[in-house]
Amino acid sequence: MAVPKRRTSHARKGKRRSHQARHPQELQYCKNCGEPVLPHRICANCGFYREVEVIKPKEKKE
């Protein structure tokens, strides 16, 4: 079985992991109602996706 001859340094380990950082979630805004929506998801507020009504929105109880 292959075994490393030298220990992996902190710098080399950091270089390898440089692309693994977490990034903030991108938000978009619904073109129909203007609410913030995650990309490629149906708007929970109005039920539209790409300017087409996909689902009927739930009625709000007052």
Biggest β-sheet strands, sense, barrel: 2 strands, antiparallel
End-to-end C-alpha gap: 68 Å
Pairing-aware structural class of the strands and helices?
Answer: alpha+beta
What is the helical fraction, as a range of percent?
10-25%
Order of helices and strands: HEEEE
Spans of at least 5 consecutive residues whose pLDDT stays below 50 are: none
Number of strands: 4
Radius of gyration: 23 Å
What spatial order of strands do you see in the largest sheet?
A: 1-2
Shape label: rod-shaped
Overall average pLDDT: 89
The proportion of strand residues reads 5-15%
Give the count of helical stretches: 1
Task: Describe the protein.
A hairpin with a 6-residue loop joins strand 1 (about 30) and strand 2. This protein is α+β, with helices and mostly antiparallel strands. The strands form two sheets. A two-stranded antiparallel ribbon has the order 1-2. It has a two-stranded antiparallel ribbon with strand order 3-4. It contains one helix and four strands, in the order H-E-E-E-E. The chain is about 10% helix and about 15% strand. The protein is rod-shaped, with a radius of gyration of 23 Å. The protein has one helix at about 10-15; strands at about 30, 35, 50, 50-55. The mean pLDDT is about 90.
